[in-house]
Amino acid sequence: MSLAARFQLAHPGFTLDVDLALPGSGVTALFGPSGSGKTSCLRCVAGLETAARGSLVVAGETWQDSERGLFLPPHRRALGYVFQDANLFEHLDVRRNLLFGWRRVAPGDRRLALEQIVELLGIEGLLSRMPARLSGGERQRVGIARALLTSPRLLLMDEPLAALDAERKAEILPYLERLTRELALPILYVSHAPDEVARLADHLVLLERGRVLASGPTTEVLARLDLSIALAEDAGVVLEGRVLGHDPDYGLLSLGLPGEQRVLLAHAPLPSGQALRIKVLARDVSLSLERQHSSILNVLPATVAEIAPTRSPAQVLLRLDLGGTALLARITRYSLERLTLQPGSRVWAQLKSVAVLA
């Protein structure tokens, strides 16, 4: 399955003009600041913006084509929509809220079972509760379950964690990760939270003022120095690796990266071979011309690939090549000149901190 979308939508003071070709699997994040067009784009896909002109093809099926006068209404588009607020029916208990979505689908078209979704989202103990007795995280899990029980071919999620505090976000994120692993269902995920995007998204679309600035694998887009996202204080890259083993004496997990690189993490044991994502912030990478013996565990050979200015005249941003894997480092301009670094320079990248995104 793949998704091809082209939309033009004019509002007073804002125009959405996007052209997208997105993968038909995994999580695609629409990311950008408030007012960039993320929700407008999602509403166009859902058919909620009837004034939008353009085209939308999902898995070879045309849902909209303005030139041919074709517009499939929202209720005929095989999609689920999860809003910031779960929008549960307050007069129905959780079970009946779920059955509302399930019964909308003809028995022969049901691809997901009620029991499967209930177990997947961990809501077995909530079925008899009324929505008023649910926490924010529980309400959102029920809302996601109800959307899934319509057996959609595409799931749209509009900042589903925005209304939750940090504790509730931490509660629900593992369920979202499990959902993406176990269901062969493409997801369009709107967010302005970098950590959510880094943790969940396989593909990233960066929007600004209604236009697409970049679209591609998350690992590649986050490493681009020509994008404003690289200038943020929490700019960094996502690295994807596989568990090599665990040292019980020191509590360290060994993670293999592409290019035969390896990093050590303070983490509980995980099965060998398990995929794991980590995030390394540019501000947590220092550089040396020689390998140093220090308390920093992860010192990796790298080549300077690109150098770019930052918003501060005192700092520069470097993109490093770790044998095919990109890493960002933010250092002072003084250090850049003192080390005489330029594209092609060989360095040792010292990772002062590594965040496990799971």
Automatic annotation (TrEMBL):
InterPro entries per UniProt: AAA+_ATPase, ABC_transporter-like_ATP-bd, ABC_transporter-like_CS, Mo/tungstate-bd_C_term_dom, ModC_ABC_ATP-bd, Molybdenum_import_ModC, Mop_domain, P-loop_NTPase
Residues annotated as domain ABC transporter: 1-234
Source organism per UniProt: Pseudomonas benzopyrenica
Keyword Transport: yes
Name of the protein in its database record: Molybdenum ABC transporter ATP-binding protein
Transmembrane segments: none
PROSITE patterns cross-referenced by the UniProt entry: ABC_TRANSPORTER_1, ABC_TRANSPORTER_2, MOP
Species classification: Bacteria, Pseudomonadati, Pseudomonadota, Gammaproteobacteria, Pseudomonadales
Domain Mop: residue ranges: 293-358
Keyword field: ATP-binding, Cell inner membrane, Cell membrane, Membrane, Molybdenum, Nucleotide-binding, Translocase, Transport
Presence of the UniProt keyword Membrane in the record: yes
Gene3D superfamilies per record: 2.40.50.100, P-loop containing nucleotide triphosphate hydrolases
Superkingdom of origin organism: Bacteria
Pfam families from the UniProt entry: ABC_tran, TOBE
